[in-house]
Amino acid sequence: MKIYSLFSFKGGVGRTALMVNIGAYWANRGETVLMIDMDLTAPGLSYSPLLGDHLHAEGPGNGFSDLLAAYYRGRNTHPDQLHFMPPSLLMREVHPPDKNGMPLKEGRWNRGGRLLAIGAGTTHVPHLKHHETTSPHAAALADEKESLTVIKDIPPADGRGEEETLEEYSLRSLALAIREDLESWREDDRCIDRVLIDCRTGLPELLELSLGYLSSRMVMVVGLNEQNREGMRQLLTALQKRIPIGGFPGDLRVVFSPVPRTDDEENVIAALEESNKLLESLMRIDPSNNEQESQPLTSLLHYTPRLATGDAPLVTTHPHLLYAREVREIAKWLEGDFRTASVVEDFKDRLDETGDFLKPEEVTRFPGATTTRRSNPSVGLPRWFWPLPREVREDIDRRTQKCNELITFNPDIKVDKDVFLTKLSWSVSANADEKRQILLKAESLSQEQVDQLLDIFDEERQKFGSMAEEQWEGLLNYYWDHQKNWAEIVEGTEGVKRFLTAPLKGESLHPLWETWPTYWANSADVLSEQDPDQAEQLYQRAIAVDPNHAPILGNFALFMENIKQNHDLAEQLYQRAIAVDPNHAPILGDFAIFIKNIRQNHDLAEQLYQRAIAADPNDANALGNFAIFMTDIRQNHDLAEQLYQRAIAADPNHAKILGNFANFMTDVRQNHDLAEQLYQRAITADPNDANALGNFALFMTNVRRNHDLAEQLYQRAIVADPNHANALGNFALFMTDVRQNHDLAEQLYQRAIAADPNHANALGNFANFTNDVRKKPDQAEQLYQRAIAADPKDGNILGNYAGFLLARKRKAEGLERLQAAFGLLSQQEPPLQLELCYYATIHAPDRYPEALSTLKRLIVDGVRSPGWDLSGHVAIAREHNDPRAELLAQLAAVISDGADPASLDRF
User: Fold this and answer.
1) Distance CA 784, CA 791 (A)
2) How many CA atoms lie less than 13 Å away from 256 in the CB half-sphere?
3) Which of 185, 476, 594, 639 lies at a CB distance of 3.0 to 4.6 Å from 377, suitable for a disulfide?
């Protein structure tokens, strides 16, 4: 539910008509809208002919003044009790009008919408303690007389903190009670979507209630005369504690009304200019950057005679009118934001069992007082020189010198360079390269071009300053990127480093951003690989700011898992993230991968994948990773294929999933035509996906034997990611086996291991290369040991190391590794099985009596290991006078040299 207030200093400016038109516009779109008449001086809404019956039996004869009367009686006679009349009991139906403006009592608003109202009521309001009871009209007049000279400051939505009085506390409690009651109202499974409040200066506490504690956004309706301008001055001054610096564009809209249609007359134009000048003069100076804050957005509301001759909302009966178009513009601005009030979880517990009163003395401090208030990220940005070292920033001469180095204008151009640079630094419409171009070409800019740029910067800032609160976190990410880029423009890599790390040392560069967890988390993401220790500190800051930010908890868990390899803490963070948001599909999917790879708890991993997909059936990542799980762990290939198809249906251009599906079609289904199509789709979707390019190169080598295209693909993969260890290692293998360019192969292996010192596959293949090609067994053994340390459960590396040891007559060590490799063998690795069975046949036939028969079966099935050097093992067999030596030599020739298997028939 969203609450908005429309208010004015005086009556007669069309405020109530504007509210009714906005309410009708929303109701006609199918929403349920409530209008509340808080203008106790001249309650125009309360006398509308469109008002129908009350919805509840308690309603007739009562209105908002009755709610206030109950509140004041309790507060004035029993300070420890807050008497409360639920506003939902006071609601009346508002009927849509017919074409003549008469109420259609049996009619409905379009799309099932509803328009409701709470009238002003007629009850006397004993509004102040020890004052005589008076009528609402007299009370308001008395206060209006006082308000001509002073209007009380409007309090912030979450109160004045330590300075809050008991009366202010109780009024804020009343606001929360009103909101709670209206939010809980239901009829025909419909709730109230929006609330519009009609109020004006008069009873001061009504302004506090509506503008301070209830409203998310406000519309100030102002006439064009001097008296209204004085009222605007007082009201804007009163709102300065309610609206933080920089918040006016998002919280308040100023509507000048009624503006005559003849607005080209000099006196009208002069009045509007005078009002705008006053508005600008009331804006405060932001102490964080010494700049004047942006002013509220303004609108004109043109007068039409139809407003004086009927009560029907013109926005529905005459939508083509200029007035109706202007109403829609204001309504759409209001829709853009809902500032969530401080949530009081135990609010209901503070009402007694009958729900009649609140007992504030039971609460020592209002729960919402500790809630962090965050500002629009475009507010409070520092001036252009913030990336400079502190000593330069504080030295005006050195700062001026840097300013002159950055930008030079033609001497005839009238512009403050400091102001221009500051506004350029704030801009997010220009990227880093465009800003550099502006700085380079500044000397050739004309005065008109400079003025246009400044106008663009100002309009942009006002636009982002009025964005919806629910969009602020995304806006912060946008600004964060641009400020990081500005740091590089001003101070190069040192500026970026300062942007990322200075806040850890207590230097606040963007103080208003520090209340946002994403500010710290973004810096942590950038530093995660460059400086893991500082990245961890930044993640901890982010979690300290918001312990319940599920995505950041999930990213912190990934960091701890992959970078810090602190698996216990990673698991705790995953669990915290899922406790905060049990249906966050990406986090559930990441946790499933963790549980599968790190904890090897496959049953729990499967449950997590299923939960992720139930939370979001179209989460392509979760579907694709679950498909890999079903292939590698469960070997349920039919389900895996279904999951791949679902993932691609959810995201037809997901390069990673397309590439993995291509691998599946190659290795499992052996549908090479479809695999090739999928690889091509993956590369089309992302021409710089090094993983897909490298795997496609493998496919072209092993399946299509198109070595020229394979080489091109490897080169593209390495250009796309020069540190892609997998692509580098496979390209090295290609250069060894296919091109026999051993020098380049060695360079590629070294690059692969430099990129990832723990890449087991690259280490193992480099060990093979070092032993077989370079003939350096000692270095090869070191590489084998590093590879096994990196992945102790890689059966292929263990088998290769076993063969290495056995060929060097280190039989006991070799057989130990051979047994471990057999234990890790899967059905998806027939070449490895072939090699292991060959080693077992030569070196331990008694331990592996079935090895020879398995070896023959694999050869009949067409399994080979081309280029594998088995000569050392044949030599050992001959040295030991093994009667099978010739058979073993011929087997080696068939396995590695491509000899005809028919040559085995003679044995």
Assistant:
1) 11
2) 23
3) 476
CB atoms near residue 751 (< 10 Å)? 19
How does DSSP classify residue 295? Answer: P
pLDDT at 782 over 60: yes
Containing 751, the helix (H) or strand (E) segment is: helix 742-755
| Rounded distance between C-alpha atoms, residue 661 and residue 671, angstroms | 11
| Residue 596 near residue 612 (C-beta atoms within 8 A) | no
202: which DSSP letter? S
Token pair belonging to 154: 């409007």
Comparing CA positions, the residue from 104, 281, 88, 53 lying closest to residue 184 is: 88
Q: Is the pLDDT of residue 362 over 50?
A: no
Sign of CA dihedral 165, 167, 172, 177: positive
Residue 633's pLDDT band (cuts 50, 70, 90)? very high
As a residue count, the chain comes to: 907
Q: What is the pLDDT of residues 218-233, one digit of tens each?
A: 999 999 999 999 999 9
Average pLDDT, the chain: 88
What pTM does this model have? 0.70
CA 629 to each of CA 593, 621, 803: distance values in angstroms, whole numbers, following the listed order: 9, 12, 31
On the question of a cis peptide bond just before residue 126, with omega within 30 degrees of 0, the verdict is no
81 — pLDDT class (breaks 50, 70, 90): low
One-letter amino acid at 509 equals L
For the record, the structure tokens of 337 come out as 């934001």
Query: Residue 113 to residues 192, 337, 450: CA-CA distances in angstroms?
Result: 10, 21, 49
- Give pLDDT, residue 699: 97
For residue 33, what are its two tokens?
């809208």
**Which has the closest alpha carbon to 838: 893, 898, 900?**
893
Alpha carbon 753 to its chain's center: 35
- Distance in angstroms (rounded) separating the CA atoms of residues 682 and 814: 42
Sign of torsion, CA 599 601 602 607? negative
pLDDT tens digits, 864-889: 998 888 999 999 999 999 999 999 99
Q: Contact 350/359 with Cβ under 8 angstroms?
A: yes
In angstroms, the CA 247 to CA 229 distance is 21
Q: Are 727 and 714 in contact (CB under 8 A)?
A: yes
β-partners of residue 33 are 115, 194
Where in 209-309 does DSSP place strands (E)? 217-222, 252-259, 285-286, 291-292, 297-302
Q: How far is CA 17 from the centre of its chain?
A: 39
Q: Is the Cβ–Cβ distance between 561 and 580 less than 8 Å? A: no
Q: What span, in angstroms and rounded, lies between the C-alpha atoms of 84 and 360?
A: 13
Q: What is the pLDDT of residues 737-749, one digit of tens each?
A: 999 999 999 999 9
Task: Establish how many alpha carbons lie within 13 A of residue 874's alpha carbon, considering only the half-sphere containing its beta carbon.
Answer: 14
State the residue for tokens 């003395």: 361
Closest by CA position to 115, among listed 219, 28, 199: 28
Q: Give the model's pLDDT for residue 124.
A: 67
What burial class does residue 380 get, using C-beta atoms within 10 Å of its C-beta: 0-12 exposed, 13-18 middle, 19+ buried?
A: buried
Collapsing DSSP states into helix, strand and coil, what is residue 25? helix
For the chain, the distance separating the N- and C-terminal CA atoms, rounded to the nearest angstrom, is: 87
Q: What is the DSSP letter of 8?
A: E
pLDDT at 82 (0 to 100): 62
Spatial distance between the Cα atoms of 444 and 408, rounded to a whole number of angstroms: 9
What is the SS3 assignment for 363-385?
CCCCHHHHCCCCCCCCCCCCCCC
SS3 content of the chain, % helix, strand, coil (to 5): 60, 5, 35
**Helix or strand holding residue 799 (H, E):** helix 795-807
The pLDDT confidence band at residue 353, using thresholds 50, 70 and 90, is very low
The candidate with the shortest Cα–Cα distance to 795, out of 771, 772, 828, is 828
Q: Which H or E run includes 196?
A: strand 194-200
Buried b (16+ CB within 10 A) or exposed e, 464-481: bbbbbbeebbebbeebbe
